[in-house]
Give the backbone structure.
Amino acid sequence: EDQVTQSPEALRLQEGESSSLNCSYTVSGLRGLFWYRQDPGKGPEFLFTLYSAGEEKEKERLKATLTKKESFLHITAPKPEDSATYLCAVHGSSNTGKLIFGQGTTLQVKP
Amino acid sequence: NAGVTQTPKFQVLKTGQSMTLQCAQDMNHEYMSWYRQDPGMGLRLIHYSVGAGITDQGEVPNGYNVSRSTTEDFPLRLLSAAPSQTSVYFCASSYMGNTEAFFGQGTRLTVV
């Protein structure tokens, strides 16, 4: 069964304190791994797509990496505006646009 | 481009009532999906469509119907609302089956 697990559930950082969020996945044939950001009361906002092990993507203070079993979202020198819930999702083996989501990591960055 | 538009944003229903949640996208995407988001449960797939006239069930389809008569629209129908359907509903669309999905702003539904 395709499955996505994110850790930790919640993370509190001081402004400037770098850290990483983890996304472990089990899928029979990975067709893409996605990171989203979700602010309270809003829909998920797309951040990154990763398709193969070893791939990396960067955007401002965020960097996403992918191995055969997990993905990391590295946050370098975070700011309070980076506070949000970060969601990880995978496409399974079927080409249907179906996404399997993890539970998310809620990040709070204090000034 | 407006992206993915959902209406209404908020809705309160009585048990047993029916309603339709609207979803429209202007990106000419073939793939569209409905998810519900509950505390501690993450986003779960209700129904999805790979093109006009083609729909299929996701993980939690019971109590919901969908149809896809046009590429742009993918409405979600609640047949007889139950308190267990209290949730936040998100519609999403993607260009291909393995590309990023774009989400609407959500509909917060309360069934009393």
Q: What stands out?
A: The radius of gyration of chain B is 13 Å. The CA atoms of residues 4 and 25 of chain B lie 4 Å apart. Chain B has a mean pLDDT of 95.
